[in-house]
Design brief:
The structure is a homodimer.
Chain A lengths: L1 E5 L4 H13 L1 E3 L5 E3 L2 E6 L12 E5 L5 H8 L5 E4 L5 H6 L1 H20 L6 E7 L21 H18 L4 E7 L1 E2 L12 H11 L4 E3 L6 E5 L1 H13 L2 H4 L4 E3 L3 E4 H17 L2 E3 L3 H8 L8 H5 L8 H13 L3
Parallel strand pairs in A: 1-4, 1-6, 4-5, 6-7, 7-8, 8-12, 9-11, 10-14
Antiparallel strand pairs in A: 2-3, 11-13
Chain lengths: 325, 325
């Protein structure tokens, strides 16, 4: 079978492609597992060193370009993991760019899937940003009221995934990812970039700026749990999703103070001292609109994975720094 | 000031234009009332006899055509009432048409408003179809889970209205209209078309088919209350809307049996006998996804109008049949 991963050159995309290669198989619409023969990554740019496997091909292009997309998806795509997005801070700074990629791009992906002979399974990476605060506790029935353009675009794309599925054009599944911590590499334009930065940089001996207050709560997940969830979302039978094609993934509620505490336990006082509190009002305003407490009853009931605690997340990240690449 | 009404040649559009002309004034962004100097109706076609007033101009064109739209809105539009839509049954039968008009068309309208020097007030006519059943009681906090493409498109457009308002591109207000009863004229492709038909046709001595069961509940509003609400939505100060730019309008919960009972009281046994119960599974399935019971606390608190009862709606409609045109 052929699998397409949009945003495949990104951090999560790379982890997902590696996990798919290790796994080797995925479920197709007939309910049986098939060998993954081909994985095509689509991304706007090729940056850094990419995971190499004979099954994996990397294509550079714009998901908003329908002609390019239909060429890549051809008529033999069984599954799509749609991760490509303009991140929250960038979509807030450049409204039109966010609409073009997050909205029109997603629609182009769905249209290409619709043109396939079958109804491909489509896993869409949505976000906690679909919610806007203040919401004391988000449940499976909380009305999503996004407070950022990124959140609106992700939410609207969820509704498209739902309607395309209802019409039988695709077999879609959208999952709202918590903030992913710890992301390796460099800071990006996501308003949540600091959440990884305040762990990653100090462990590398570098100072990190924390633009929000120590009491700020975040709803987070490890990269590993997120990848497991994306694949689990794909593997669940269609009737588990039924008419509701989106759910909130499990995560952990953690304060910035508790994050720094975990950093101290893993990296020592010197590491913790490298976090400099320096409020950035623009980032703080965006982050404050994201609820941090969730009851993920539906996701738990259908077996989505969850991290044990934040200390474990930091320890797992620190372990990757010592492992050979 | 200049007001644009999309869907202005339709039934509600015509009623709205007439009401605006009678009223003569609207509030502008500075909070003061101004004389309406010009009303431009945009509609895809010119059908039947149109309301004539020296202030009103009728333009025929496609709201999905950005160039056409920007020409009509020019740079002097103060307010837009956006009513144009592909109705529910048609959007379900032709997915692409619904997406093009209800989604892309709305976005084109919003983009043209954004290009105005000010931030025009935009009143968007959304729909109870934003909700999908079964929902025993819809409140202001009920998660909208539309079960039709029309509902998805209306809901997505609401989120655009909200985000364009948050960004300061427009001063938007979206109201979810109940099913409007009694519409004059001919049946249309809305799944709710029968709700007017089973009153209108029997009163005109014509048989009407009711495609849903007598126990079916509907959430309805008179055309008059809907027009009053659209204008009220426009007139409310921006801070009344705040960050939540959509609300559920008041209405009446009524069963088909009670509707026929009201018809009997106004038109006699002969009229009631002209309703033929003949189930249509496609229409029934769509109508059954619309919740019929609402608590409209927010709308009531800010003064939106409500019909007294269904009998009054039928009596008011019957009175229009006797009045000179």
């Amino acid at each position: 079978m052929k699998v397409v991963v949009t945003g495949g050159a990104g951090f999560l995309g790379q982890m997902l492609i590696r996990a798919l290669c290790e796994r080797g198989r995925l479920t197709r619409s007939d309910g049986a597992q098939y060998t993954i023969e081909q994985i095509v990554s689509i991304d706007q740019a090729q940056t850094g060193r990419l995971f190499v496997d004979e099954r994996v091909g990397y294509v550079v292009g714009d998901i908003g370009n329908a002609q390019f997309l239909s060429h890549v998806l051809a008529r033999d795509t069984d599954s799509v993991f749609h991760l490509a997005a303009v991140v929250s801070g960038a979509a807030e700074a450049d409204f039109d760019l966010g609409m073009r990629v997050n909205l029109d791009g997603t629609r182009a992906v769905l249209e290409c899937c619709r043109a396939q002979p079958g109804a491909p399974r489509v896993v869409f990476a949505s976000s906690v940003a679909a919610f806007g605060g203040p919401v004391p506790m988000v449940t499976d029935d909380t009305y999503p009221r996004p407070a950022t353009s990124y959140g609106v675009q992700k939410l609207v794309a969820e509704f498209f995934v739902g309607d395309y599925s209802r019409k039988g054009f695709i077999d879609g599944r959208a999952v709202r990812l918590p903030t992913i911590v710890v992301r390796p590499g460099k800071p990006n334009a996501a308003a949540s970039s600091f959440a990884s930065g305040i762990i990653r940089e100090p462990l590398a001996g570098v100072e990190a700026i924390c633009p929000v207050d120590a009491t700020t709560e975040l709803w987070v997940s490890s990269p590993g749990a997120a990848i497991t969830s994306l694949i689990h979302a794909h593997e669940l039978a269609p009737d588990v999703w039924g008419t509701q094609r989106v759910l909130n993934l499990p995560g952990i509620t953690v304060t910035v103070a508790a994050m720094i505490d975990a950093l101290r336990k893993v990296g020592g006082d010197a590491a913790a001292a490298r976090v400099r509190m320096q409020r950035d009002e623009i980032i703080r305003r965006i982050v404050d609109t994201w609820p941090a407490r969730f009851q993920t009853i539906r996701a738990n009931a259908v077996g989505f994975a969850q991290d044990a605690d934040f200390l474990g997340i930091v320890r797992a990240y620190a372990a990757t720094l010592k492992a050979p690449a």
